[in-house]
Amino acid sequence: MKIPGTMRAAVLTARNEIQIKQVNVPVPGPGEVLLKVAACAVCSTDISLMDKPGPGQPDFGEFIPGHEYSGTIAAVGEAVDEVKIGDRVAVEVHYGCGRCLNCRNGNYTSCLNWGETEKGHRANGMTAPGGFAEYVVNHISTVYKIPDNVGFDEASLITNLGCVLYGFELTGGYIVGDTVAVIGEGPLGLLSAQVAKILGADTVWLAGLDDYRMGIAKELGIDRIIDVKPEDIVSLLKKSFNTGVDLAVEASGSEPGMAAAFRIPKWTGKVLLLGIPSGEVSLDMHEFARGNKYLYTVRGEGRTNCRRAVSLLKNGRINLKSLISHKFGLGDIEKALTVHKTNGNNSIKVIVNP
Ligand SMILES: [Zn+2]
Ligand SMILES: [Zn+2]
Question: What pTM was estimated for this model as a whole?
């Protein structure tokens, strides 16, 4: 594979301003690989990092966003024997410092040295160059081989699935025969409902409002699609399940969604927060605490749950293809970002193919 000296990349030049520039192709160091990017999905985190830079984010004029991507190994650095040139791979975002207590306990997505590159932490597309470019360098620990039956576009979404799987792992994971209610029909909501089915839940409900996305949920075989506002789901679920559900997954990030998620579990039931609220929210903690309920939060796609995601994809157990609503070339990245931001034309996941 011939690697050029320069490449096209989408560079964040100022707040909310992205430009296609010609930049040097990065060279992989020891333990690193160079990927030729095939697909990079737009995520709401990209939009917020373009608006308000996060800790450790490279300066304007240097930062290439994009953290959900897949591609082909184009070169390998010293001491890499896990993959070879030509291998098809997908990536996860987080590479922990390896020296803080969280990393040493395996919780590398919550690295305590987040953004401190000199201490070894790296998150591609957040604190290091990302995938809205022709090439990108990743640490080998963040790379997962994908088989030929898995397409690059769907493989770019393994972090979404990995995040959902990590969430289910943290809640205890064993939900065979349980009732699960998912609030929010975005990518994480649609994936959570699918994952609950795969893990053997008795009944899976999905509450949301967007007709197009709820149509997709129906096609995915979710047991019951509830076309109601989060506020109304409470009485509906209480009526159907009497004591409440075993697990509520909040994937909307909205205050009404969270308020509903806190109310619908039965006593000793669980709430998994996948949606992250943008600010303070008001919740009924009296009822929650009195009901002996449990709350779980999740950061990223930890504990190598991306490997589990690839396994589900490889075996055809999960459908990521139907989440892909739009595709653009790298030159049209601004259009791609706009479609994602405005939810235009029924967008779910928007993919950029450099
Ligand atoms: Zn993301
Ligand atoms: Zn760490």
Answer: 0.95
